Amino acid sequence: MLKINRKKCLWLLLVFLTLPQFDPSYFQEYATQWEPLVNSWRLISALFILIWLLIKRRLSLIVLLIGIRQGYIVLNTLIQRGAFRDCALSAITVMVVVILYDLMQEEQELFLSSQLFCFELIIYVNFVTILLYPEGMYTSLIDGIVVRNGRNYFLGYYNSFSKFFIPALLIAFLYKEYTGKKMRTWLLTATCYISALLIWSGGVLVALFSMAFVYVLIKDTSKWFNYYNSWILQGLFFLFVICLRLMNAFRWLIDGYLHKWDSLMLRTEVWDIELARIRRSWLFGYGKLPTVIRVAETKKSWGMHAHNQLLELLYRGGVINLILFVVIIYMAGRTIYKGRDINSKLITIAFWGWSMVAMVDPHEDPFLMAMFVIAYYANRSMPVFKKGSSPPVSVESHRLN
Predict the structure, then answer these.
(1) Cβ atoms of 225 and 218 closer than 8 Å
(2) For position 313, what pLDDT does the model report?
(3) What DSSP line would sit under 154-205, residue for residue?
(4) Which of 29, 235, 272, 292 has the most C-beta neighbours closer than 10 Å?
(5) Neighbours of 47 (CB within 10 A)
(6) Which residues, including other chains, have CB under 8 Å from residue 355's CB and lie 6 or more apart?
(7) In this structure, are residues 279 and 243 in contact, taking their beta carbons and an 8 Å threshold?
(8) Cβ-Cβ contacts under 8 Å for 12 (sequence gap 6 or more)
C-alpha cells in the first residue's frame, strides 16, 4: 500500500515539476494575467529540483557538458552586452529539465508515464485551439481594428510545433515499448500528424513524415542510417544549400508538394546576412541578442534567428559553441550509435526529426536538449527502458563535493 502511494505521489510531483517548464505562447500573448503564477511555479520547480540534486549529489557527464555550454552562451551574452536576462532564464530552464531527466533515470516507468501525460496535456489543448480557431487564436488591436494573428495557437506559431512534437513522440514510443500499452501512443501520434496537416507547416510535415518513413521501412539503425548520420545531414545542408545554393534539386518537393519555395527564397536572404555577420566574429559570435536587433539586421519581422541550426550556433557562440555542441552530440550518442534494439532506433529517429527541422528553424528548447540525456542513458544499464530492469549501476557520474 505504501509503495503504491509513493508511486502516485512521485508521479504527481514529476508532473508538477515538469509542466511549468513548457513555454506555450498562450501565457505570453493571450493570458498575461497568468504569467506571474506560471513564473512563480517555475521558480518553485527549479528550487525543488536543485534541492533534489543536492540530496542525490550526482550528475551525469552529459548534463555537465550541457551545463558548460549553457554557461558559455550566458557569459558570452553578458560580455557582448546582449539579452542577458532572457539568455540566463532560457539556460536555467534547459538545465532544470535536463537535470530532472537525469535524476529520474532510476524511475523509468514513472518518468515515462509522467512525461507522456504532460505532453498529452499541452498537445491536446493545442489541437483543440486549432479546431476552434482555424485562422489563429490570438488577436491584436491595430489602429482601433481587431486583427487576428494567423497560425498562432496555444503552443505558439505553427512553425515551432516540432519542438514539442518530436520529444513527445519519443517519450510516447518509449512508453509503448516499456509498458506494451499502445492506445495512448497512437492517439498522441495521430494528433501530432493531424495538427501538422491542418496548419500545413512545411518543416514540421517533412520532419514527421520522414520519421514515419524511417520507423516503418528501416528495421534497425545501420551504417547508413544512424544517430551520427542524422546530424551529418546538418553539415550537408549547410554546404550544399546555404553555401552552394543547390536547392533546385529539391524544388519538386519544396514547391510542388509543400508550396514553400517562396518561403525558402526569403530564408536565403537571411542566411546571406547572418553569414556576413558570422565572418566578422567567427570564433566567439555575438551571444543572444535582443529580438529587435536581430530583426533590424535582417530587415524582416520574422528574422529573429538565423533559420538554420548550424548558422545559429555560430552566430551565438562562434566556433567554440559549435565545438561544444558537437561534443554533446558525440557523448550522447556513443551507446546508441551501434545499437540495433528498438530503443536505439526510436532515439535515432527523434534526432533525425530534430535535424530535419533544424535545417530551416533552429530550436534548442529544454525538452529537445533533454533528448540528449535519454540518448546518453540508453544501453548503459541492464537494460534502459525495459520493464523489470534494475536501476542503472554502470552510468558514468560525478559526485558533487
Answers:
(1) yes
(2) 95
(3) TTEEGGGTHHHHHHHHHHHHHHHHHH---HHHHHHHHHHHHHHHHHT-HHHH
(4) 29
(5) 11
(6) 230, 231, 233, 234, 309
(7) no
(8) none
- Comparing 351 with 302, the larger pLDDT belongs to 351
Q: With the C-alpha atoms ordered 5, 7, 10, 16, is the resulting torsion angle positive or negative?
A: negative
Give the span between the Cα atoms of 360 and 370, in whole angstroms.
21
Q: How far is CA 289 from CA 278, 305, 385, in A?
A: 14, 10, 40
Of 327, 332, 346, nearest to 380 by C-alpha is: 332
Which residue matches cell numbers 492517439? 187
In terms of C-beta density within 10 A (0-12 exposed, 13-18 middle, 19 or more buried), how is residue 12 classed?
A: exposed
Q: How far apart are CA 130 and CA 158, in angstroms?
A: 10
Total residue length of the chain: 401
SS3 call for 225: coil
Other Cβ atoms within 10 Å of 281 Cβ, number: 14
Q: What are phi and psi of 36, to 5 degrees?
A: -60, -40
Compute the distance between CA of residue 275 and CA of residue 272 in angstroms, rounded to an integer: 5
Which amino acid, 220?
Answer: D
Across 84-98, 131-145, 303-317, least confident range: 131-145
* Positive or negative torsion for Cα 376, 377, 379, 381: positive
- Return the C-alpha cell found at 399: 559526485
**328, 69 contact by CB (below 8 A):** yes
Residue 266 has pLDDT above 60, yes or no: yes
The whole-number average pLDDT for the span 184-207 is: 92
C-beta of residue 357 within 8 angstroms of C-beta of residue 166:
yes
Assigned C-alpha cell, 109:
516507468
- The pLDDT-based confidence of 130 (bands split at 50, 70, 90) is very high
Rounded Cα–Cα distance for residues 322 and 313 (Å) = 6
The sign one gets for the Cα dihedral 306, 331, 318, 76 is positive
Distance CA 226, CA 380 (A): 18
Selection from 332, 338, 352, 361 nearest residue 217 by Cα: 352
Please report where in the chains the cell 525558402 appears, as a residue: 264
pLDDT tens readout for residues 326-349: 999 999 998 887 777 888 899 999
Per the CB < 8 A criterion, the answer to whether 307 and 339 are in contact is no
Comparing C-alpha atoms, which of 191, 79, 83, 189 is closest to residue 128?
191
pTM over 0.85: yes
